[in-house]
Amino acid sequence: MPLFQVPQPTRFDLNFSIAGIRVRVHPLFWVIAILLGTGSTNLLYIAIAIFVIFVSILVHELGHALAFRRYGQDSYIILHMMGGLTVPESSAFDSYQAVRLTPNQNIFISAAGPIAGFVLAIAIILLGVGLGGVFIVNLLFGFIPFPSVILPYEFGVLDRVFALFTLINFFWGFINLLPVFPLDGGNIARYTLIQTDPINGLQKSLWLSVIVGALIAILSFVFLKSIYMAFLFGYLAFQSYQALQYRF
User: Fold this and answer.
1) Cα(217)–Cα(227) distance, rounded to whole angstroms?
2) What mean pLDDT is predicted for residues 171-184?
């Protein structure tokens, strides 16, 4: 299955709908979620991580889908090995392009996913504050190796859920806003540059994607020691470079 493309349906897909929006979960999504959640040997904590990843990515994609709906375009959601996709449904015009979304509308749709994640994270923080100030420490410092004097107790199950929801939604939201195609930030950069420079805007957005993607890949490998992040952004930078060679 090519990365960041719609995967073929399988008999193991999980299918359901939310607010009339169809959702399909490819089985490889669970595999990646399990791999990302194996930072702990505790089966309960692994299950919590999988649940939080699933809900967080689903909320992100629902942000896109509801933004599409705002402009009269139906869409469906696919959760797969690289995260999620919100795919416009074929319209009466046979293509969502016929809806003629403006660049600003496309920018809003792209931004709606990260915004949905940020709103979820803020809601979790407010809930934690409402349940007691002790949760604030975990929300701010969860999973960061601070001295025991700051974190004098073990994280409880609810603490871990709150901290994970907050960290994942803020982290993934900011990552998605990087100007690397086809991430949301890449789409925002593309439509912004096309408006400011109709002739060379697309080419500039692809070069921006190549440079930022390569830089993030190097930083991820050197400083974060994350092979997954290095591979992801290295692949995206290469994909944008290929697009430059093909188009220009």
Assistant:
1) 9
2) 94
